[in-house]
Amino acid sequence: MNVTRDIASTRxxxxxxxxxxxxxxxxxxxxxxHAGHRSLIEAARRDAGCVVVxxxxxxxxxxxxxxxxxxxxxxxxxLKQCEEAGVDxxxxxxxxxxxxxxxxxxxxxGRLTETLCGPFRPGHFDGVTTVVNTLFNxxxxxxxxxxxxxxxxxxxxxxxxRDLRMPVRIVACPTVREPDGLAISSRNENLSDAQRRQxxxxxxxxxxxxxxxxxxxxxxxxxxxxxxxIITEAGPARVDYISVVDPETMQPVANVAAPVLVALAVxxxxxxxxxxxxxxxxxxxx
Length: 286
What we know:
Elements: E1 2-4, H1 7-19, E2 24-29, H2 35-47, E3 50-55, H3 75-84, E4 89-91, H4 95-98, H5 124-139, E5 143-147, H6 151-163, E6 169-173, H7 193-214, H8 220-234, E7 238-245, E8 260-268, E9 271-279
Parallel strand pairs: 1-4, 2-3, 2-5, 3-4, 5-6
Antiparallel strand pairs: 7-8, 8-9
Helix pairs in contact: 5-6, 7-8
């Protein structure tokens, strides 16, 4: 496994892979790798010739209330996991390799960034799209893999790729969950035992929403009200949003007449958790 930390050596290593006729697959991460990341790597391993994992904690996607300094770092553990997963190249750049000191350019995907997490994390998605654009420029992948757990991010990146005519195929991979349904996330480590049990209510609320919609409920307000009840009855929680939106535009849906994304962001204690479920009203519940 090759580990690079600068642009020139990364491009040189990948040029050799391309000359050998191997397509390039990129899995962008911020490290602290867990089962969710490994599922992306496994998908890339199955589909492509040369698998690249980027590990970069991106400062521009952290707001003033987010703790960039305390974001978990485990370089040796991450590299070990990548090697065990059969990764060909790990791009592990410092900040100065990704951003000029006087950089002023940002990539903004309008409208899709204005709902759900957007109002609660100002500037976050501009940071995400800017760094992903930079990674695409450096690695020049044929295909890139992202998790469905970050559904809004996924939709934004897809739109960026479409609008800017980027020659990269985006693959969405299913959310990886714990046995009780909680979406796997590095943030889960911050939950106490009681909070961890309470957090299972988020997936329970999403499943209830799916059952209601597939069972014939079309009023999004009814669906989200019942979700709120399930979550608040499980224990103290602060809800940023519980929403039913169009899965492509991220715009709110009042009446469910086509596939929708049911999404939520909830604080349990000091930990903010997000999750979502795509639901097709045309598929009836058993």
